[in-house]
User: What shape does this take?
Amino acid sequence: MFSVLKAASGRTHLYLIGLLIVACVALGLALTVTRAEVSVLQANIDTASANQLGLQLDVSALTRAVEQSEADKAKIWQQLAAIQAAEQQYRLDLAGIRGRQEALSVTLNEYRSSEDESLSLWMGTAVPDDIQRLLGNAAHCAHRDHRGTETCRDPTAANRSM
Assistant: This one.
């Protein structure tokens, strides 16, 4: 019986040793698979880091673009306010000019319809050439588009050119 036990225990050791060998091989395979998974995850982390850096650069570029457009927007609003102020001033000037024109028109109509003979004689008098040239130059220079011309900057130039 002892020999049976001895023989059985020898087989048990063999089974145990075989089982340990299979376990070591299984653990080795599991370790290899785990290392492969770790390397795949490390590659994913590297890719994610590169993507994060690219996204941070994109966000920085977008932030600069938004800041620039906000600055442009503020500048446009300032220009719009300046244009509105200039338009308001233009309308005030235009109203003043039209008021003066209306007053002068009324005065001219009064002169034309006047019964006063001396006024009629005065209005019918011929204007000398020098005065007519001076008045023509003044009317020409009164227009805002002609203020920078040579004849408007130098009044003697009008006499030379005519």
Q: What stands out?
A: The mean pLDDT is 85. Residues 122 and 132 are 15 Å apart (CA to CA). The helical segments are 2-112, 117-124, 129-142, 150-153, 155-161.
